[in-house]
Amino acid sequence: MWAMAWGVFGAVFYTLAMILQLTPQQQAQIERHMFIGHSIPTTAFVIGVICGFVAGAGFALLVAMLEHRRTLQDLTWLRMSAWGSLPGIALMGFAALSSGYWSGALIPAAILAVCGAGSAAGTLIVVRRAIAPSTKTPLELPAT
């Protein structure tokens, strides 16, 4: 779930950010290539999927290690959002550490932290709905 959501968000967000800062000639050139498949949205989607997968796995490990004594009903939105934001911050920290580009890492780290917190909250919503008792009665099949 995290990988696909981050992939779609990354493709949309990065493409809009790139188009807004380009000259009209560069925008026209990118728009010609957007539908071919080797474009900025495709690359941003793949990068988003990889980051979302890694962040989702990191979130799962954090929750499994640090919240293993709690039930799903005991988990709060704030704690889940905090655990969800940490892998995004760690991803950006690792990228900044490996590239040496620290000055431009603050805004992407904040964006990834918000994505992680939102994904964690979404995960908690899905899990709680899955385990909630259903108010609907099951359909009875006619006897044959």
- How many individual helices? 5
Estimated radius of gyration: 20 Å
Measured distance between first and last alpha carbons? 41 Å
Helix content bin: over 70%
Ranges where pLDDT stays below 50 over 5 or more residues in a row are none
Which series of helices and strands comes N to C?
A: HHHHH
Mean pLDDT: 77
Q: Tell me the strand percentage band.
A: under 5%
Overall tally of domains: 1
Number of distinct beta strands: 0
Outline the structure in words.
By secondary structure, this protein is mostly helical. It has one domain. The chain is 73% helix and 0% strand. The longest helix has 27 residues, at 40-66.
Brief rundown of the structure:
The protein has helices at residues 2-20, 24-33, 40-66, 77-99, 106-131.
Descriptive key words:
elongated, mainly alpha, 144 residues, 5 helices
Give the topology.
Layout: H1 2-20, H2 24-33, H3 40-66, H4 77-99, H5 106-131
Helix pairs in contact: 1-3, 3-4, 4-5
